[in-house]
Amino acid sequence: MSIxxxxxxxxxxxxxxxxxxxxxxxxxxxxxxxxxxxxxxxxKKLRFKTxxxxxxxxxxxxxAKGQFSxxxxxxxxxxxxxxxxx
Length: 86
Hints:
- The structure is a single chain.
- A two-stranded antiparallel sheet has the order 1-2.
- The chain has helices spanning 5-31, 51-67, 76-85, and strands at residues 37-39, 44-46.
- By secondary structure, the protein is mainly alpha-helical.
- The chain has one domain (5-69).
């Protein structure tokens, strides 16, 4: 099986799409941390009740989001942003 530039471009786009979806999901978790959350893989619902629990959950999601905030390669948006800085 050979891999060409088109295959790599498609894979890169899939990673970019996944990354955007993951960031949007984290933003939703942060914004709605006081609501009931269903984790389908565990079939459990979770609800944080106290302000301390909500803050701790938000902090955890922010830390997790920070781990994958930037992709390890340039995207079209990164290139546009860099060009606008110059």
